Amino acid sequence: MKGINILSTGLALPGRRVTNDDMAAMVETSDEWISTRTGIRQRYFCAEGQAGWQLAAQAGARALENAGVSPHQIGVCLVATMTPAFATPSAACLVQRQLGLEESTLCFDINAACSGFVYALITARALLESSPKPYALVIGAEALSKVTDFTDRSTCVLFGDGAAAAVMELTDLPFAAVQGARGDDQALVCPGFGSAPQHLSMDGRAVFRFAVEVLPRCVDGVLEQSGLAMNDIDYVVCHQANKRIIDHVVRRAGADPAKFYMNMDRYGNTSAASIPLALEDMRAAGLLRPGMRLVCAGFGGGFTWGGVLVHWNVKGETVCD
Question: What does pTM read for this prediction?
Fold first, then answer.
């Protein structure tokens, strides 16, 4: 089974940076309270009239440029999001129009909440097997500020907006993935179109218990399926929800904390955008080198979870059928 090779990434952020002190002016909280419990220090919010699909298109354009790939070479375009601007058209279709992807490009959205980017990578890999084009554009994009209840201090401090994209292709190197779902409409809920109010609500303790159960399972499952050990992995890139959750995974694995990249301090919880935002920060910082092996692991509302083995910018092992 062909593996996933990510050539490059790109991001787009809305212009409004919101610090913890800014949040303290909106709701009863403090920088100390937020940062010690979550690791978050700031986040970005969309401006009035700014939509997640617009950020997705900007991130996608930058990823294509960084990868040196033409829009005409894209056979699959997926956008992972739980905050689409429309029920239809999909964000992916709007990205197709904005970037000039060919009309033969397979485009649709995936809603697996914070696991969405991992789900999208797994789905794009399968779709590329039968695509005449060699590359897929996989984007995580969220405008969570549009569904946040800013009177609920336990949740409003957590979330941020943003988008990041990856250009991927198939490789002869190994593929490994685990994924799953556990239906739950109580612990983490965001009502859909026609419902009022449309604010996200969350039982933080229940989500934490779920996360520390399934996130280690995702990482362990990918390692077991691939026959690799933690020492064979260069980085583990988890959904950036809460520093305490990732610290738990590190302790559970007995791993070097340096393998587990974290950047929630700069963006907050951006749901489906968090893993690709981390990948782009790592790329821009020069942390990622050709041939590296990464495990990406996410968990989110639904409940959903997923982990996948990713190869970074591998040379000479790609498959272009």
Answer: 0.95
